[in-house]
Amino acid sequence: MSGGLTYRDAGVDLEAARETKARLSDLVRRTRTDAVSSDFGSFGGRFRATPGRELVASADGVGTKLKIAFMADRHDTVGADLVNHCVNDILVEGARPLVFLDYVACGVLDPDTVTSVVAGLAEACRENGCALLGGETAEMPDFYAEGEYDLAGFVVGEIAYPELARREIAAGDHLIGLASSGIHTNGYSFVRALFFGRLGLGAHDPFPGAEASVSEVLLRPHRSYLPILAPSLEAGRVRALAHITGGGIPGNLDRILDPDLDAVVRSDAWTRPHEFAVIARESGAEEAELFDTFNMGVGMIAVVRESDVGPVLDEVRSSGCDAFVCGELIEGAGKVRMEGA
Q1: Which CA distances in Å does 130 have to 58, 83, 180, 333?
Q2: How many CA atoms does the CB half-sphere of 86 hold within 13 Å?
Q3: How high is the pLDDT of residue 31?
Q4: How many Å is the maximal CA-CA distance in the chain?
Q5: CATH of domain 174-339
Q6: Edge-to-edge strand list for the sheet holding 174-179
Q7: pLDDT band at 99; cut points 50, 70, 90
Q8: How is the chain split into domains, by residue range?
Q9: What superfamily in CATH does domain 33-162 come from?
Q10: Is 141 helix (H, G, I), strand (E, B) or coil?
Q11: Is the separation of the CB atoms in 82 and 62 below 8 Å?
């Protein structure tokens, strides 16, 4: 393979995904009832269960990051990935998690593997203050390759921060980036094509320029931002949040913008973690491709008033998570402008 690697080369067509989402929009909207209070395409779906109470639900998987867990025979991190990703998605909608359900499907049931996966799920649920209410373990012979399984999760929460659901944002608001803990759970088809394909590395080989192995770097759990942001949210300092997942900053920050606002993001406002520098160097991918595929070191973006920038930075950093001003909102047309990339 010559030239810069793209996500399409790795087998993921983002344009096809966008087209599919557009086709599904009308089908989903036809099921809407008066109790539904969110739009199709939100990070989580909001539902008014009873007067004064609004629930938020979301579902997700871990994607092809599971392939690396299979290669490394390490299964204790992907459960945490699943819980934290789902919790972040409903946090964007202003909710705290109440309950979580999991679905594990495999060809041949290996009790040790499933126990390791669920142990990670349970620990992440405890850390996020939600109950692992139940789930399903499906054994499906001949459907999955030996030693492989699939994993999905479903979270239900309740609105605790209504200002996030309202998203009363305006030109002049600042964008604060919260550092990711690594690649999180998106872009792994690209990652596998690069490290195990183009570079020919194994899961237990040293990661380029690091003391850790390839699998140790690539299996770092997806960070939960609920405990990190709780003090700022309780104080009412955060006006809106964007969880930076598949599609990167351009494909997620635009989901919270009003039609008359643009977000200007300065990509030189933070130092990219080592793994992203390696991905950029070894793949030869263009900057736009990288920012459309990966979080590039920013796992969540908070929209705050100028007067709240200092307190939010202090509160987030005091939790041990790095934070930095990475842009602002201006008058526009609902677009994300990447500057410095």
Answers
A1: 14, 10, 22, 38
A2: 32
A3: 60
A4: 59
A5: 3.90.650.10
A6: 238-243, 298-304, 174-179, 323-331, 261-266, 336-339
A7: confident
A8: 33-162, 174-339
A9: PurM-like, N-terminal domain (3.30.1330.10)
A10: coil
A11: yes
List the beta bridge partners of residue 45.
57
Distance of CA 207 to the CA centre of its chain: 23
Give 307-332 pLDDT, tens digit per residue: 999 999 999 999 999 999 999 999 99
Pairing of strands 336-339, 298-304: unpaired
206, β-bridge pairs: 213
On the CB side of 114, CA atoms within 13 Å amount to 16
d(CA 59, CA 114): 20
Tens-digit pLDDT profile for residues 55-78? 899 999 999 999 999 999 999 999
Amino acid sitting at position 175: L
Can you tell me the distance from the alpha carbon of 59 to that of 155, in angstroms, rounded to the nearest whole number?
6
Three-class SS of residue 171?
Answer: coil
- Helix 78-92 / helix 65-72 crossing angle, nearest 10 deg: 160
How many C-beta neighbours within 10 Å does residue 73 have? 12
Q: How far apart are CA 37 and CA 55, in angstroms?
A: 10
Percent of the chain surpassing pLDDT 90 = 70
Q: What is the DSSP letter of 137?
A: E
Q: Take residue 161 and report the two structure tokens written for it.
A: 């921060």
**2-25: b or e for each residue (b if 16 or more CB lie within 10 Å)?**
eeebbbebbebebeeeeeeeeeee
pTM across the whole model: 0.86
Burial status of residue 340 (CB atoms within 10 A of its CB: 0-12, 13-18, 19 or more): exposed
**66 and 124 Cβ atoms separated by less than 8 Å:** no
* Confidence band of 17 (pLDDT split at 50, 70, 90): low
CA atoms within 13 Å, Cβ hemisphere of 224: 24
Task: Give φ, ψ of 291 to 5 degrees.
Answer: -70, -20
CA dihedral 110, 116, 121, 125 (to 10 degrees): 140
